[in-house]
């Protein structure tokens, strides 16, 4: 017979510290999933705070914190007052613009990198725009073309019209991902080059001409020409930036159309 009082051997099992998620993160995660999968529609009101406390059996502080997390992530809009509460907000192009803008600023992304990215993407935007543009898209581009050709426009107005046109081409692509990304990119480039104090009438005329030529290709649904002309229009910018490192010089070259041979664009 074995003796009954033998002590069992000590276990060799080792445990790591257990990471317990915060209850507010868990609740926020659950609500976020329901917003993103469409179960909670845009504009729908979430249950009142009191009701959420009752349903989830979590504390009032936890429920508040969860709603606060969703608000910061722009997934709910909190309205104060008697008819207030938390209302569902699905992510939009604008949320993407904000995220990309924060990334560009927070990571101190260099102008040369912004330019390279634009050089790669914008001809494709023009190609898609030629395929997908609506009459409303064309009206936007025509408006920007008119504004950029206005001889009375000051520098700020000229640069704004330039930005509006580039954003207009991106919108005409009707590709939501490209739209969010390119709008953030265009705004950052605009912010990085707005001191272009010596943009003269010659440069303005060349820019207006390039924009008109690309607009014409988009209007005619000629995707190859739209891509090629856009490539020519934006390509030289990044090269110049890398070479000169001088912002003023760069801005001039960006706005002047370059021949195909220099740009490496498909012809
Ligand atoms: Zn331009």
UniProtKB/TrEMBL annotation:
Q: Does the keyword DNA-binding apply?
A: yes
- Give the residues annotated as coiled coil: none
Q: Which PROSITE patterns match?
A: HTH_GNTR (PS50949)
Q: InterPro entries, from UniProt?
A: GntR_C, TF_FadR/GntR_C, Tscrpt_reg_HTH_GntR, WH-like_DNA-bd_sf, WH_DNA-bd_sf
Give all residue intervals belonging to the HTH gntR-type domain. 21-91
User: Looking at the keywords, is Transcription regulation present?
Assistant: yes
What keywords does the record list, in alphabetical order?
DNA-binding, Transcription, Transcription regulation
Give the highest taxon in the source lineage: Bacteria
Put simply, this protein is called FadR/GntR family transcriptional regulator
